[in-house]
Amino acid sequence: MAKVYATGRRKTAVAKVWLENGNGQVSINGETLDEWLGGLEAIKKRVMQPLEVSKQITSVNLVIKTLGGGYSAQADAVRHGISRALVAYDEQFRTVLKPYGLLTRDARSVERKKYGRKKARKSTQFSKR
């Protein structure tokens, strides 16, 4: 089968994911998963969750490019992108991935700062007199 493309998003991070038949190689920004995330084991596990749930770890190759955000947001964007790519690759994966919430885009993002305030909600101390 040909390459399948999907986009994953989280906060301001975007992950472009290309999925194809292969032997389980994962390349993120030209690096392996271990080089990209170093010793952050919990985040690595979160990134690989869609492949583990769908039992596709050793049967697909992934080429991923990430932009914006930090490591955690990028990792969640990659996870979202992999999930969407798997569904585009084979529609049957939707029933497997959906119960884990892997196809839902996490809409939480940073609230904007309001004028007259120090941050989004923090204001100056109230003075009665």
Describe this structure in words.
The protein has a single domain, classed as Ribosomal Protein S5, domain 2 (2-Layer Sandwich), CATH 3.30.230. The protein has 129 residues and is α+β, with helices and mostly antiparallel strands. The radius of gyration is 18 Å and the shape is elongated. The chain is built from four helices and four strands. Strands 1-2-4-3 form a four-stranded mixed sheet. It starts with a strand and ends in a 32-residue tail after the last helix. Helix 2 runs parallel beside helix 3.
Order of helices and strands: EEEHHEHH
CATH class: Alpha Beta
Largest sheet descriptor: 4 strands, mixed
Secondary structure class reads: alpha+beta
CATH architecture: 2-Layer Sandwich
CATH topology: Ribosomal Protein S5, domain 2
Overall helicity: 25-40%
By DSSP (H or I, 4+ residues per run), the number of helices equals 4
> Would you tell me the overall average pLDDT?
92
Strand order in the largest sheet: 1-2-4-3
Q: N- to C-terminal separation?
A: 73 Å
How many structural domains in the coordinates? 1
Overall, the morphology is elongated
Number of strands: 4
Question: How much beta, percentage-wise?
Answer: 15-25%
**Any idea what the radius of gyration is?**
18 Å
Q: List the uncertain runs.
A: none
